[in-house]
């Protein structure tokens, strides 16, 4: 199957993307530098068969909407066969589609429909662990001397018969589980039902490489690598030290995970994954890299290339003041190596919705910030609708994080609820009973499409402006000194300069500069586009994008 060349209609400039023959080395076309990437959790996007769960035919029926929104690529959370104990991140077969989502034929159709519509497709790759019903694990767990005996992390008990180390699972409790058949423990970074693969084993690496080639040949444009920082655990099985600041933290965070996370050898695994992706032309490797800004730089490369885009959630973690945001943005740009391409993520299936934290008015400012910073923007389906954390009654909780480590607000169901497309009872998501209760009926696509001043229209306008304004994609970022609670920066490309002013408060604020230019877009529908000159009186919660004269 040959890779489809990209065609984008009418006003959208073409993304340079040569027609690529399979498995020939092509120069890295870096399409993602200009792309806006939209995360979709298919189970909550659109149901087609009334089982209350979204599926691929449902997603196919909504491609027109994605095109209307203007995003360049979609990233899908896992759609592989799975018992779905962890949102599909527990995979039973890497090279198939879960029947609840559809078939491989539906998947192929999705690839070609997206490509025909000028969009690209990124899928989740979960190389750290499988589900415990994966054939590899069943074989590995059956004895100590089967062909896959060394495919997972097996260890003998400690001298007292207990777990080999003090390592704890992300979802609480010991990360080691006893297996009677082998009279050994296996390691699981996440659920007991998600055993970790042994990335020191070359056969495991080769098997995952084959999985990647399987999907790359089907035409996917890249992967988001799950849990890339934890692929390797300490070979000496050294205990993790206690976290001195553990007080009040949930149990899984009461250790410093120095021997389980972000090991130097994990970087070689990422280099290995990258080399597979580079066998094909123009494909993207982005990845989840737990950890703080100061660790993000080394996920790009050292001698060998690693991830193109290590996902950066710093905006979500930042305090929401002009000064704190300036510090966050500066710290991130300073932390990535020269020449590395930045990336900003403002939502995701593991993160509380930003609109809940910031409120509806500042959610508009966040949208403008995301789409005017230098670096590839990522947002999560529903962020453009202003979706907030849905409330989930105790008897409807699905996420194991909430079930196992309850009471700390760690549950991820509230951000994962199904979208609403219209005003009908289940928002047009399903004819059946939605798998999770849905959020605010007002945050629906049809209603917001009808309101020209809605957040949805603002997202669309920002995406379109970014696309037609190379200064916003490729331009340099220059911070300005924040004044009067206004987050301010410039983007420059050649002779073009764009000034971005974001009022981070709910009151009017004055920008004292004497700039002259043209207002290209405001978060406030009341402001006219056109000539503008300083000092500039910003309205409450207003952000403006100004092309300087
Ligand atoms: C990160 C995923 O984003 C999260 O949803 C999942 O629970 C863990 N990895 C385990 O795969
Ligand atoms: Mg369905």
What does this protein structure show overall?
The chain has two domains: 365 residues, Alpha-Beta Barrel (TIM Barrel); 69 residues, Oligo-1,6-glucosidase, Domain 2 (Oligo-1,6-glucosidase, domain 2), CATH 3.90.400. The protein has an eight-stranded parallel sheet with strand order 9-8-7-3-2-1-11-10. A six-stranded antiparallel sheet has the order 12-13-14-19-16-17. The protein has a three-stranded antiparallel sheet with strand order 4-6-5, with no helix packed on it. With 549 residues, the protein is an alpha/beta fold. Helix 5 packs parallel to helix 6. The protein is 24% helix and 15% strand. It is globular and about 75 Å long. It contains 14 helices and 19 strands. The N terminus is likely disordered. The chain binds 1-deoxynojirimycin and magnesium ion (MG). The site of 1-deoxynojirimycin has 10 residues, from loops.
State Rg.
24 Å
Task: Report on the biggest sheet.
Answer: 8 strands, parallel
Our estimate of the beta-strand percent is 15-25%
What's the N-to-C terminus distance? Answer: 49 Å
How many helical elements? 14
Give the strand tally.
19
Integer average pLDDT: 94
The number of distinct structural domains comes to 2
Named at the architecture level, the CATH assignment of the largest domain is: Alpha-Beta Barrel
Shape: globular
Q: CATH fold name of the largest domain, please?
A: TIM Barrel
Structural class by secondary-structure content: alpha/beta
Helical proportion, percent range: 10-25%
CATH class of the largest domain: Alpha Beta
Unique bound compounds = 1-deoxynojirimycin, magnesium ion
Major sheet: arrangement of strands: 9-8-7-3-2-1-11-10
Residue runs with pLDDT of under 50 for 5 or more positions: 1-28
In CATH, what is the homologous superfamily of the largest domain? Answer: Glycosidases
């Amino acid at each position: 199957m040959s890779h489809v060349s990209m065609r984008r209609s009418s006003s959208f400039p073409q993304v340079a993307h040569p027609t690529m023959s399979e498995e020939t080395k092509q120069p890295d076309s870096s399409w993602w530098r200009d792309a806006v990437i939209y995360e979709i959790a298919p189970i909550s996007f659109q149901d087609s068969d009334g089982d209350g769960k979204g599926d691929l035919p449902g997603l196919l029926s909504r491609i027109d909407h994605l095109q209307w929104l203007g995003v360049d690529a979609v990233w899908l959370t896992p759609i592989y066969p799975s018992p779905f104990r962890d949102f599909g991140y527990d995979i039973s077969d890497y090279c198939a589609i879960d029947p609840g989502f559809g078939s491989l034929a539906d998947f192929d159709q999705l690839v070609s429909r997206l490509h025909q519509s000028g969009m690209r497709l990124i899928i989740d790759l979960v190389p750290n662990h499988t589900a415990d019903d994966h054939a590899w694990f069943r074989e590995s767990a059956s004895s100590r001397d089967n062909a896959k005996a060394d495919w997972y992390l097996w260890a003998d008990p400690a001298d007292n018969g207990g777990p080999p180390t003090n390592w704890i699972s992300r979802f609480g409790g010991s990360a080691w589980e006893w297996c009677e058949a082998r009279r050994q423990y296996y390691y699981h970074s996440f659920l007991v039902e998600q055993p970790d693969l042994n990335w020191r084993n070359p056969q495991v690496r080769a098997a995952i490489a084959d999985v990647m080639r399987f999907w790359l040949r089907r035409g996917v444009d890249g992967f988001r690598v799950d849990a890339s920082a934890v692929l390797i655990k300490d070979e000496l099985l050294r205990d993790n030290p206690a976290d001195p600041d553990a007080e009040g933290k949930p149990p899984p965070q009461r250790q410093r995970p120095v021997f389980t996370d972000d090991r130097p050898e994990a970087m070689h695994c990422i280099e290995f994954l990258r080399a597979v992706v580079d066998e094909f032309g123009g494909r993207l490797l982005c990845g989840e890299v737990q950890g703080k800004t100061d660790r993000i730089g080394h996920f790009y490369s050292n001698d060998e290339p690693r991830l193109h885009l290590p996902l950066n959630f710093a905006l979500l973690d930042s305090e929401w003041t002009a000064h704190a945001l300036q510090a966050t943005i500066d710290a991130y740009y300073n932390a990535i190596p020269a020449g590395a391409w930045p990336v900003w993520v403002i939502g995701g299936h593991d993160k509380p919705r930003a609109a809940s934290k910031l409120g509806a008015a500042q959610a508009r400012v966040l949208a403008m910030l995301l789409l005017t910073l230098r670096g590839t923007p990522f947002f999560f389906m529903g962020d453009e609708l202003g979706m907030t954390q849905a409330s989930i009654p105790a008897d409807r909780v699905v996420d194991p994080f909430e079930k196992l480590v309850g009471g700390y607000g760690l549950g991820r169901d509230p951000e994962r609820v199904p979208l609403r497309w219209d005003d009908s009872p289940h928002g047009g998501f399903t004819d059946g009973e939605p798998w999770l209760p849905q959020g605010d009926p007002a945050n629906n696509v049809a209603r917001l499409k009808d309101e020209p001043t809605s957040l949805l229209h603002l997202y669309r306008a920002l995406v379109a402006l970014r696309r037609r304004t190379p200064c916003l994609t490729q331009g340099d970022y220059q911070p300005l000194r924040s004044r009067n609670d206004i987050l301010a920066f410039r983007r420059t490309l050649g002779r073009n300069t764009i000034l971005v002013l974001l009022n981070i408060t709910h009151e009017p604020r004055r920008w004292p500069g004497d700039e002259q230019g043209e207002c290209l877009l405001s978060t406030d529908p009341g402001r006219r586009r056109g000539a503008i000159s300083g000092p500039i009186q910003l309205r409450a919660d207003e952000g403006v994008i100004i092309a300087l004269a």
